[in-house]
Amino acid sequence: MTLNITNLRAGYGRTEILHDVSVKNVEPATFVGLIGPNASGKSTLFKTIAGLVKPMGGHITIGGEDITHLRRKDRAQCIAYMPQAYGCNALLTVFESVLLALKQTTGWRVDADNLDRVSDTLHALGLSHLANRGIADLSGGQAQMIAVAQTIVRAPEVILLDEPTSALDLHHQLSIMTSIRNEMDRKKPVVIAALHDLNLAAKFCDRLILLREGVILADGRPGDILALPEIGETYRVKADLERTSKGALYVDARLA
Predict the structure, then answer these.
(1) What angle do CA 28, 31, 35 make, to 5 degrees?
(2) How far is the C-alpha of 187 from the C-alpha of 120, rounded, in Å?
């Protein structure tokens, strides 16, 4: 279902963080990269869409239905959110923790279909070998990959991932982004991921949204957005958009 955000304002207490943010017509099976420097409002935007922060104004619709004032519990039926800081009962195995995430939106009775969905999700993300490991025994990077599994196992219509690659080495960054992309192509949700690595964003995303100080500066195709002078200005670097010998986009950045 198509996601639309119109003139959204949100913040904490009397402090407004997001200022008239509008994101139009995010279609199913679209991978959106939310880019911008630290403290630009990316996490606040995710929390507001997920229902953790009450908006000060504006509207959020999914498939034409206004969800702006739905309770978090009701939004969880169609929106899955992976925050930067995540946790899980350390006494659970990986398989149990992903199953628990699934059951939070389907009721607590476990059936064969539930078990198959957990197994399929772990397999799709290349995590089957961790299924019987205890959560407490995982590295930070492994725990982050399990958090992604907990988010996508529910097959929601909108998936929000706040820095899904921040704790991962290069191999696992590529692995998890490829897996997310494959799952998106297979199940057709809207996926929005906050990303600091502009080259990962260029490689995997269909659309980029540049956010700075709670305002959207640009929204469009990666090749168009990453070529803008606003990229260098926003990140306080000199940035040139280049192409590899195989035609892939990459950002060559250096200190200004």
Answers:
(1) 135
(2) 13
H/E/C letters for each residue in the chain? Answer: CCEEEEEEEEEECCEEEEEEEEEEEECCCEEEEEECCCCCCHHHHHHHHHCCCCEEEEEEEECCEECCCCCHHHHCCCEEEECCCCCCCCCCEHHHHHHHHHHCCCCCCCCHHHHHHHHHHHHHCCCHHHCCCEHHHCCHHHHHHHHHHHHHCCCCCEEEEECCCCCCCHHHHHHHHHHHHHHHHHHCCEEEEECCCHHHHHHHCCEEEEEECCEEEEEECHHHHCCCHHHHHHHCEEEEEEECCCCCEEEEEEEC
pLDDT, mean over the chain: 93
Q: Are strands 207-212 and 190-194 parallel, antiparallel or unpaired?
A: unpaired
CA 47 to chain centroid: 11
Q: What are the structure tokens assigned to 1, written together?
A: 């279902």
Quote the pTM value.
0.93
Residue type, 32: V
Beta bridge partners of 240: 252
88-123 pLDDT, tens digit per residue, is 667 899 999 999 999 887 777 899 999 999 999 999
